[in-house]
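S., here's the first fold you wanted:
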Amino acid sequence: MTPLDGEHVLICVAWPYANGPLHLGHVAGCYLPPDIQARFERARGNRVLMVSGSDEHGTPITVTAETLGITPQEVVDKYHEINARALLDLGCSWEPNIDPRGVDFGGSLFNRTSDPDHYKIVSENFLSLLEAGLFERKVMQQYYEIRADGGRFLPDRYVEGECPTCGYDEARGDQCDECGVTYEAHELKNPKSKMNPEAKIEIRDTEHLFYRLDLFQEALEKHASERQSVWKPNVRAMTKQWLDMGLRPRAVTRDLDWGIPLPMEGEDWNGKCIYVWFEAVQGYYSCAKLWSERYANSEDWEKWWKVSSDGTKPRHLYFLGKDNIPFHTVIWPALIMGLNHANSGLDQTVKPSLPSPGQLHLEDNVPAMEYLMLAGGQFSKSRRHAVWLPSFLERFDPDTLRYYLSINMPENHDTDFNWPDFVEKINSELIAAYGNFVHRVLTLGARLPSNRKLPTFENLSYCQEEMGKLQEIHAQVTSSLERHRFKEALRSVMSAAQLGNQMLQGATPWKFLNDLDGDGAEESMAKLSFGWRLSRYLAILTNPFLPFSAQRLWSALGESGEVSLASWDSAIDWSQEYKWNDAEAKPLFQRLDLDEIISQEKSLAESDLPSPTAPGHGVKGGKKKNKEVKEMPEGTTYLNFETFMEVELKVGKITEVSDHDNADKLYVVSIDDGTDEGRTICAGLKEYYTADEMTGKSVVFVANLKPRKLRGVMSEGMILAADDGNGGVKLVTLDGEITPGSQVR
């Protein structure tokens, strides 16, 4: 593919609430993956438009404002600036707004939902859908706080209580952060006003407009069926769950002053605004239009949004956390189809259909992430359980964070952030493999005499094996990034660095620095010279992941300009002009000291303000209940909590059970664990279950048990079962369906 015929790729990034600083969970789940993808797509010659911004409406904003005693505008102004700066400091390519290759290649816009032009676009879309008859008026029940001034309705986050599903006692009015389930506010148990817990609350009727999601059931089912081979298991499962339940009309207005006011006249609509779920997703569309108006030609946005007359489609990728999946595979596609419907002059009497030429395109993939956990608990802005991005970047090289989160990315299952693992991966992987190799090439090359620098020793005939392996790795990395397998891609890149270390270790060029014409010197120095090409290769392939160090390496190699402008395939073009930089080589990274980091973290945690909205640093909030320690039976050995947290329990679905060829009491069990490969576990359950009885069950297994051979078969974990001690054994199973690979906690 040449740059002239590159695809139009729209990369849509979830909009963070501007009610606090971003934490590392946000970065791993939503903001680093799209930047990696965008950099990769640009390097391949595609035309990329990346859009996102701050979500500045909704109750998270007003709750924060009321808690702090300031206006919602003050909250969003503060945190939009903080978060936009932090993302730039992390290396996310939100600037410049125009692609360095030219405006025809796209660019980026990190906007705000408080932008007046966004207001205008959303209001216009609202009226189009209203005119098409895609809204209906309904009376709904909502909690109302009774106060001396007459009281107020309490939307979603203004209500807290017990989750109707899991019983978590700090669930908010519309969703439980503990189990992720959504529900109507009146389904919450033991509800109370979040801002005034002692106030009396009651259910009252309130009238709202509802979007007719039910009209789009058939079209969305067809769309989902077309995406089955592309969507990840968690996306397929959650979308199917919503569609299987049957879509119902969903409120698009709310009783709240902060937001886009309803573009409707009449007292019935006073004190109501457009519901944030309906408004914020339209930011992907408004951002593209506003980028086009402000930086390109006013109609250029259509190249990234509309199906062309000949049926050519742009490619739409949406990056978000798993809690937002239904909004992007059900609700937002339904809104897009509704806009297509309305813009075609159709109304609710005509069955909606999937986009045709000239209409707005739907998503191609939603590579949603699972959760990055902190010390075993989900990152949470509201509960102050987090490591905050701005604070992190004040102390660490951003590429160290980008590396760690990329190699530990929660693609198929929840992963964990902890400081010892962070230090270990940076020191023993990033520095010891990648950093060490390129530094050896640069320092050894610098020790050569001025009349015999590395380019003079180039002889690719000695490096055919390495060239072949690097071409294979390049293909693997490309394939992985095309499928949004970021961990897999980065591991492959690191294997190239390790190949370089092995090449140098075998060639021992340091032995010939004082005898460049001795026996074996020609081949040895040719390998060292090829190290320059391998380093250039690494600069290009690491750029999507580690842009700062990639640019430092690019300059150290004597290359001019920006590594981000280098063609992806030029990494394996061994005819590229050889250059050299005589400047003193400096290490790409600095080693980390765990003890020093832990000491800093302790100090930061102890200095946290007590305010529930003040950013904490690794501090878990929530109520503390004093309970007496229950005396355990004699002989009980307590398990250290940190040790327990090292045990990784996950859900797997049994897909096949067969007899073990060499063990009468063992089954060989194949499990879908949420990965492409799955896993095999040997289980001593033959006397308790038939193979058919086990097949199809969702079970709990130990995922990080060291694999071992059992009678010749490698067993990759342990399936949990209950044993009553009297011959009764039962598998530990789930009471409903859940995505394989889900973490048990």
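And the second, which I think is the more interesting of the pair:
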Amino acid sequence: MDFSREQLQDKNLFELREIARENRVQSPTKLNKEELISQIVEASSQRVKGLKIRPVSRPSKLVDAPRRNAQNDVPEKAAESINEIMAVDETCEEREGILEIHPDSYGFIRVRNCEHSEKDVYVSAIKIRKAGLRQGDMIKGIVKVAYDNKPAALLIINTVNGVPAEELRKRPRFDDLVPIYPDERLKLENARSKNDFAIREIDLIAPIGKGQRGMIVSPPKAGKTTLLKKIANSISENYPDVTLMVLLIDERPEEVTDMQRSIKGEVVYSTFDTNETMMTEVTKGDSQIDLVCPSEYSIQKLKEKNLLQPLDMSDGDYEYISNVYPAIRDRVESIFGAEMNGYFVPYMWGTLGIMYNVEKVRKEDLEAGWGILWNKANNPELEGKILVKDSVRDVYAATVCYLKEEGKLDGTPYATLSIEQLINTVDNTLLKMCETVLLEQRKHIKGYEVDFGKDDMINKIAYVDLAWSGDAMYAIEESYNPDKTFKNLATGEETNYLLDYFVPTIEIDGEEKEFGNVWFDGWAIPKTAQNVPAAKEFINFMCRPDVAMRNMMEIGYTCSFNPDKYIAGEDEFTIEAINCLIENEYVCEILDDEIAENYPDGDCIIKEIDGVKYDLTEFFGDHRRYPDFKKSEGTLGVMQDFGAQNDAVVSMWERVKGGDEFPWKLIVAIVACVAIVAGAFGLCFLVRHVKSKRQPHIDADSEQQTA
């Protein structure tokens, strides 16, 4: 095909190179754009005069694919290295990731843990077909960087699963393969694990071989993840040539982080560490997620964007969904409207509070309330040992509560607002007040954390942490030491738990009440869900009393199941739920005389199962484990979406985290440089001074000798 010079000017460098190859232009990669155009025009004119030129290959045109908002196909040319391409086009770079093929035959290279991200690379259907790519292939190649909100596009495939792209056609289909049974053992025991009986027992009783399949089954918190880490570390130690991958499904983000730090291998995981990550996933048009469990404000945003479908429960028997605590549904309706209850099912809920080390935090520190995050009681043990959650919403709630308890809102329009109104008020004046005190807070804290706060508290790296109740419960349980007692400085009591948790209180109408942020997570079905009936059945299953309670025991947060039904219910699943509490030692068998002794006023919760009486008071009466939701009205508020003010809040938070850190570092660096330069000049001066003292003496002696 012939092109005019004007037509060639409109084409990019890669298109020109392909046209040049078609016209037998020598070394097109060494020519710039103008040189390429001149050579192509000259070659075309020669062909017109009768010169026969055989094209090397049929070129593929680079065109926009409007439906997918990405560039289309470019043939693979292994001879062109990434350095050569980047030398002439700065918008190209090398990326690597897992190929996910869409039902419409095109695909994306997921560069971050098989998840959607801004770094994902579009792969055309033509390229997938020509190169013989398959779902799950590890692709490494050169991409055209994204522009104008378009995804990056794959230009050249370098390797697939570590093999040159041209060798792909030789690989067989997986369905045509025959199984290869394990015939090579992977010995786990080594010098580092010689005293680890678990590893030795696996070698003896359940040896692992290459190609082996196995399953670790145990009760909650028995150490499954720890055992998996030990196995992974043993394999990487004994067999460094083995490619190690660990797959974590629906693990907590902190578990993923711990696994990544603990093993020498790749960790593939599925989890949403934040509501924002989940929302990014759901808002993608090609999302194949059937069910999500976000926080209430995220559900509000998804509903407003018309990304959720209403939960029509008329097509089946979903009896357990109706067990949700009515007080929670009432709160949802009062805040978000009655329609909101038709889009999600509340599942877990909790509070925002303070997790603390009982050996370091004093009574006066707790009396400071939210002020403990600013070390208001001036406890020297807490300086630089306070962690704050890297969550702008939670920090904002804690900060406005601190402003209220310190009286900094007195005389302002904010003073008359309820707690719920206050934490949902976002304007420039209040934002400025929050920014001021948060910058002051930076002088006292260790830093901001996302998921490592629990570990730091357990390991005594930090002594105070702004935490969610479920995380606090998890950390408290992990801090239990049956062989050691800790003196609780706040209460004077001795305990086997190193950590504790509290929600600051405020006096309202002569009564001390907890005040701050309460939140709840719930099940919702995205509009793009493809397995809606299965999603509904799963929600119903998760709301079954025994399942909800066991999940509660595992993750630490409070389930939304109606506690009255736990106490009064006689069905098998409710009794199983109570048995779960008994197994976890939250409920104990009692005698009749013990009831009168422990509860003289008769204010106790008793459950009889098969003629045996159990005391449920400790669990359902524990404000940390199963708080009374009804009592939270008016003092524990639910935060809504910041809406139009969200960017302003985020900007404030970024300024706070940036704070005055850089200027201080700069000042220190400048002082250090000045000191070094001054020292160097001083040393030079001293050397010259010594030489000048010695030189006249030598000259005088020389003159005497000469004389």
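Why I say that: The first strand starts at residue 64 and ends at 65. The chain is about 40% helix and 15% strand.

Talk tomorrow,
H.
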